[in-house]
Automatic annotation (TrEMBL):
Catalysed reaction, written as an equation: Endonucleolytic cleavage of RNA, removing extra 3' nucleotides from tRNA precursor, generating 3' termini of tRNAs. A 3'-hydroxy group is left at the tRNA terminus and a 5'-phosphoryl group is left at the trailer molecule
Pfam families, per database record: Anti-Pycsar_Apyc1 (PF23023), Lactamase_B_2 (PF12706)
Encoding gene, per UniProt annotation: rnz
Name assigned to this protein: Ribonuclease Z
Keyword annotations of the record: Endonuclease, Hydrolase, Metal-binding, Nuclease, tRNA processing, Zinc
Length: 322
C-alpha cells in the first residue's frame, strides 16, 4: 500500500478530449490515509503513474465519472497492471450503471492473466454512498450529454483533545486513550472526566471530484464545504456558449462554485487542447475573480495537499453530507 497518513492529490493528466504535448489525458490519484482513489484514468495513466512514483498497489478504488474516452481509456492498462503486479487487496470500481457494457469492454479489453480483486460498484439514482475505509464515498449525478456522476469523500467528524484541560484534570498517558475510547475516565482525585470537558469538535476533512458537467444541483451538493475541490474548467468565459452546448464548465463557473460552496482549495483541470501555456494565467484570473480562496491550476505530475482543518473551520450544511 501507499504512504499512510497522507492526504494528497497526485495529478496524472489534465487535458480534455485530446492530449497535448504538455497535458496527458485525465487521471487523478487521491491518496488518503493508505487508501488510493483513482479518478477517471484516461489513456496513458499507467505510464503517468510510473513518472509520478505511484503504483498499482496504491489503488483501492477506481472511480469513473462517465464513459467518454478521455475519462476511461486507461482502465484496461490499470486493470492489467493490477493483475500483473499481483495486487492482493480489494480494488473497488465505481462507475455509472448505465455504462456497464462499456465498463466490461474496458475491463476485459485484451487477453491477460486476470485478477479477482476488482469488485464492481455500479452507481445509479440520485445518491449513492459507499463505505470506503476512513471516508464515506458519495456519488451524485451531473449534467452532461451522457450519464455522468461526480464523487465526494467525507471523513467522519471527531474530537480534538485540549492539552491544557487534560493537564488541569490530571489526565495523561494511557488514560487519554481510555478517555477517547470510553468517553469518560476517572481522574486522580476520584472525579469523573467526560470527553466533552477536555476536547472540542474536529470537523472531518473532505474532497470532491467534479468532471464533465454543466452547472447543476449535483455540482453544488458535491462541492459544499469541501477542503479540496477538483473540478473541470474546460473553457474560458469567451466560450461559455460552447461549454453549455457540450456540457462543460468555464473557469469562471468553477470559481463561482467554489465561492458559493465554501470550498477551501480549488483545483482547476480538464483544460481544452485549444489553450496553450500562455493562456494558463487567464484560467487562474477568471476563477480568482469569483473565488477569493486558494486556486491551483493543475499540471501533469504535480501534487496538491488536502488542506488541514482547524478549529475555526466548520463544514457547511446547505446540502446533506454523509
Amino acid at each position: 500500500m501507499g504512504l499512510v497518513s497522507l492526504r494528497e492529490l497526485v495529478v496524472l493528466g489534465t487535458s480534455s478530449a485530446v492530449p497535448t504535448r504538455n497535458r496527458n489525458h485525465n487521471g487523478y490519484l487521491l491518496l488518503w490515509d493508505g487508501q488510493g482513489f483513482l479518478f477517471d484514468p484516461g489513456e496513458g495513466t499507467q505510464r503517468q503513474m510510473v513518472h509520478a512514483g505511484v503504483s498499482s498497489h496504491d489503488i483501492t478504488w477506481i472511480c469513473v465519472t462517465h464513459f467518454h474516452g478521455d475519462h476511461c481509456l486507461g482502465v484496461p492498462g490499470v486493470v492489467q497492471r493490477i493483475a500483473r503486479d499481483g495486487v492482493t487487496h480489494r480494488v473497488q470500481a465505481a462507475f455509472p450503471a448505465s455504462g456497464e457494457t462499456y465498463w466490461r469492454r474496458l475491463r476485459h479489453a485484451t487477453v491477460f492473466a486476470d485478477t479477482s480483486v476488482i469488485v464492481e460498484r455500479p452507481v445509479s439514482g440520485e445518491l449513492a454512498r459507499f463505505d470506503a475505509g476512513p471516508v464515506t464515498l458519495t456519488a451524485r449525478p451531473l449534467s452532461h450529454p451522457v450519464e455522468s456522476y461526480g464523487y465526494r469523500l467525507d471523513e467522519p467528524d471527531g474530537r480534538r483533545m485540549l492539552p491544557e484541560r487534560l493537564r488541569e484534570r490530571g489526565i495523561q498517558g494511557p488514560r487519554v486513550g481510555e478517555l477517547q475510547r470510553a468517553g469518560a475516565v476517572a481522574a486522580p482525585d476520584g472525579t469523573t472526566v467526560h470527553l466533552a470537558e477536555v476536547s472540542e469538535p474536529r470537523p472531518g476533512q473532505s474532497a470532491a471530484f467534479v468532471m464533465d458537467t454543466r452547472l447543476c444541483d449535483g455540482v453544488f451538493a458535491l462541492a459544499e464545504g469541501v477542503d479540496l475541490l477538483m473540478i473541470e474548467s474546460t473553457f474560458l468565459s469567451e466560450e461559455s456558449a460552447l461549454a453549455a452546448e457540450y456540457g462543460h464548465l468555464t473557469a469562471a463557473q468553477a470559481g463561482r462554485v467554489a465561492a458559493e460552496s465554501g470550498v477551501r482549495r480549488l483545483v482547476l483541470t480538464h483544460i481544452s487542447e485549444r489553450y496553450g501555456t500562455d493562456d494558463e494565467p487567464r484560467f487562474l484570473a477568471e476563477a480568482g475573480a469569483a473565488f477569493g480562496g486558494d486556486v491551483v491550476l493543475a499540471r501533469d505530475l504535480s501534487r496538491v495537499r488536502v488542506p488541514r482543518r482547524d478549529r475555526h473551520v466548520q463544514r457547511a450544511a446547505k446540502y446533506p453530507t454523509p
